[in-house]
Write a structure and sequence with these properties.
- The structure is a homodimer.
- Chain A is built from 14 helices and ten strands.
- Chain A is globular.
- In chain A, the strands form two sheets. In chain A, strands 1-2-10-7-8-9 form a six-stranded mixed β-sheet, with helices on both faces. Chain A has a four-stranded parallel β-sheet with strand order 5-4-3-6, sandwiched between helices.
- Chain A is of the alpha/beta class.
- In chain A, α3 runs parallel beside α5 and α3 crosses α8.
- Chain A has two domains: about 200 residues, Rossmann fold (3-Layer(aba) Sandwich); about 90 residues, Rossmann fold.
- At the A-B interface, α12 of A face α12 of B.
């Protein structure tokens, strides 16, 4: 598999610039006082389609040849990647097909359609998903854009910490939530090149701690069906993201469900921003391990803001 | 009563700069597409103490002589002004006393104490409030900072649209929610001086439409005890705010409770920001009167973000 370079990231950033927000970096005297750290929150919850995934999806979509673009793109993520791919394809005026279990919440299907994507339903099993997806690709010739194990996607996600460093200068540490490892891999790619002294931490729900266990074991461990409120972080590492995580991450912290919900609540209450439970995992990890971050200048990636406002985890 | 001038606003801005956030201005392609307007949201929900009121309170507190400051400040607002006055007094290291009905939610009392203010309870009646407040002032010599009918407070609120114009250039219109009229008066004061072609609109809950009726009647009409989800907007105009509103406001729009909650929901969902129902009134007014705003460059003041996350109006 092709390992992307920082030169690719610079190209990706130019390519996607018209289609993404350069998201703001917020600070919070509350969280600074509480942690003793100087925290810089990179607000990808304000990103197009509501999550950093718009970066990688836009890079994949706008990097396609005209010929390939005419056949469209496809994926099988019912989360932010599906939305983002639909968004990016819509901006290019090409077709995006998202294969989703027929049991997925109607709101998620509606959201994909709202961004112009086409939903194709499968049964709620891996075998059905793979069969239906293979059929879609065979029929349409659509380009498969994996949610994270794709160099184009990682190049796109890598533009996030590029902006962060450009905007706030060098950092002692950056922390991001980890699921499949796309954002963390992008951060590794950028920081190891332009800010090699910046330590990279990942934060993961204890209930879906496969990245943590992989990191400690030295090889990929995938869980079957972890359950966590941080629903963007259930997926396992794959070879490309493992490459970056195993080479560049300093440590991975895990947090309980209660800690995640409490951190999310505090962030909404104090910073007045809507972000999803997955984003809160990074804040929870800082609150839980203040000794690691106190006195340091730390970038915190708030990964997304797509949450069901009528079903909040503390209600 | 002293009518503040724009020179006062410039002085106020210098005075309060160290104690307030220069809040960001956000845009939303969703709301632009939906309204046909070019909207610039001035995010005072990100302000210190969670609302624009920190501007006026800081100006009042930091403008006090040493002698007066030593005696502290006092008010009888149980809402954002009480919080903001406590915040500002805390920054100066002086005492803030907030008289509140003993029946006020414990969370509001805790919030005032959280910012370092002292809560003094009264019975839930105007006569008790006035008696207790008079006692507090007589005993302490504290300076009474009215939530809006005070030149120092209006000078402070006026710095909000000053920043807005500095950051985005001239606007065709600015719209803000109206309760007692402090923010609208401040906007009038600034815009009539530095952007005299900018039309100033106010938005009010239909259930608390005393400013609307005052505006149409040509004199102040005060309601007894209006009920609305936009709880920051229940108070009536007073002489100083009436001066600005009657001289500089182009029109006042009213919105129903359902329209307010719908606008608030949309703003949280699409812009990923936490703001209070009072702020949503301005957005609701734009959605309801698109013909007034389409094709225009419009500033929208999002006044605050203090809301009970466990009791959302759509839950």
């Amino acid at each position: 598999m092709y390992i992307p370079t920082y030169e690719d990231v610079v190209v990706a950033h130019e390519r996607i610039r018209p289609y993404i927000h350069r998201t703001p970096v917020l600070t919070s005297s509350y969280f600074n006082d509480r942690t003793g750290a100087e925290l810089y929150f990179k607000c990808e919850n304000f990103q197009k389609a509501g999550a950093f995934k718009a970066r990688g999806a836009s890079n994949a979509v706008f990097g396609l040849s005209e010929e390939q673009a005419a056949k469209g793109v496809a994926t099988h993520s019912s989360g932010n990647h599906g939305l983002s791919l639909s968004y990016a394809a819509g901006r290019r005026g090409i077709k995006a097909t998202v294969v989703m279990p027929r049991t997925a919440p109607e709101a998620k299907k509606e959201a994909v359609r709202g961004y112009g994507g086409t939903v194709v339903e499968c049964e709620p099993s891996t075998s059905s998903r793979e069969a239906v997806f293979a059929e879609v690709v065979a029929e349409s010739g659509a380009d498969f854009v994996h949610p994270y194990n794709d160099p184009r996607v990682i190049q796109g996600q890598a533009t996030c910490s590029k902006e962060l460093i450009e905007d706030v200068g060098e950092l002692d540490a950056v922390i991001a939530p980890i699921g499949g490892g796309g954002m963390v891999s992008g951060s590794c790619l950028t920081l190891s090149n332009i800010a090699p002294n910046t330590r990279i931490y990942a934060a993961e729900p204890k209930n879906a701690d496969d990245a943590y266990r992989s990191f400690k074991a030295g090889h990929i461990i995938a869980d079957d069906a972890p359950q966590t409120v941080a629903d963007g972080l259930k997926v396992p590492l794959k070879d490309l993201t493992w490459h970056f995580v195993s080479n560049h991450v300093t440590d991975i912290f895990t947090t309980t469900e209660e800690e995640i919900v409490e951190a999310m609540y505090l962030c909404w209450q104090r910073m007045k921003i809507v972000m999803e439970p997955s984003s809160a995992v990074a804040i929870a990890a800082i609150l839980k391990n203040p000794e690691v971050f106190a006195g340091k200048k730390v970038g915190v990636i708030l990964t997304g803001g797509n949450v069901d406002l009528k079903k909040l985890p503390w209600a």
